[in-house]
Fold this protein.
Amino acid sequence: MSFKRKIAYNTAVQFLGKVVLNSLLSVVLVFFLARYLGPKDYGFYSAAIAFGGLFAILADFGIYPNLIRDMAARPQEQEKIFGKALMLRLFSAFLVSLLAFLVSFLTPYPLLIKWAIGIVALQSFFASLINFFVSVFQLHYRMDLPVLFEVLGRAVLLALVLVAVHFKLGLLEIFWFLALSSFLNLVLLALLAGRYIKIKPQFELQFFKHFLKECWPVGIVIILLLVHFKTDTIILSLEKSANEVGLYGAAYRIIEVIILIPPIFSSLLLPKFSEFAISDQKALKQIFQKAFNILFLFALPLIAFLIIFAPQIIVTIVGIDFAGASVPLRILVLAIFWSFLYYPIFHLLVAVRKQKSLIVPWGTMTGLNIVLNLVLIPKFSYMGAASATLITEALLFISAYFISKEKVKITPDFTLLKRITVPAILTVLVFIALSFIPLLKWGLFLENGLVVQILLMFATFGVGFSVYILLLLIFRIISKQTLREILIKAD
């Protein structure tokens, strides 16, 4: 199978599995949880997830991308590198999970939430190991296997949540189900990974020192990149009511599904970025630009749809009690647009070992994000939190752009922006026109049954996206040959 075919296949599999099936299951999960718990208890749920997730970020510390890079660069030493890195991941994940649970007792959260954070920490321990084993499949371009298990794991979790709803169980039982589904997923994935590589944790202090020296710049950058996605919910939970946290959490759950797209796609190209960084600078620039263009093109119709139909989407997924979440959703949608643009730059810098250059500017952005949340949340609640995210996400892209320009001499070419203007405007107008259809108008939309609402949302996006692709072909922004290369094997 050619490289193009491998990338197309693995991207399609991850898109279908993670972005479509897994995201659909996640949305259904939110659908039942939000309606069962209500805004207040869902706010407690969101706070525990955000607090535990904040610490879970520390467990990775850049190990994953560096592992991929080193195993791709030294295939003859893959098993040794994997075994030693596995020992490092086990230690870091355990330490961070324990730290999350202990630190929670220093917060003013109710005791119930502190115990919930402890269970989330355990689930995060399992999840961090799951992500580690995924590296084996990514290196062999077999992402269909871990994606399959992830979808099955999410389906099991959904079934367990339905049991909790049926028997009217509490928050802690729901969190235990979350940990159980992650544990089962980990066991299955580890067994399958053994078919591709010998799994044997190895302790070597000298390797740990050298590997951590390579990892810490990426680790710091990843932590800085993700911290501001968690601190807003935590600060909001400490400053405002659980009801407001619940509304913001509902909007954020939708965003967390969409934000999976850019890192999934660009991380698939990391091994090739690393290869071309050594052998072919011209090819590196070309493949980077293609990755940037694809994400940019896909982001536009998705962002337009989410902004125009935010109220209908919120009501369809989490119910009329969460209608207020549509406003922060619109702001957060604008924020994640920038993540579609900076993830290819981030993986490019990792590939050429220039990740250290991101630490200072992105550390500044993270600090700014925290300050903005502390200033805006007391005055504007979840609107302030969403606005802080929007500002810092835009600044993250700008900083990454100039760093790449200085350190790698490779930056995105925005020629496409001029060519895409007319199709983008026409697509937005199509979505606006669709919003005036009686069944999609706010009042009448609420009168539809849930199944009809879901079908209307899928149909609306499908029509708008199809028109968008047609316009791209008409204006020759993409060609039939480009689509043919993805759909037909090209050796």
About this structure: Residues 3-60 form the longest helix (58 residues). The two ends are 7 Å apart (CA to CA). Residues 73 and 275 are 7 Å apart (CA to CA). The chain is about 85% helix and 0% strand.
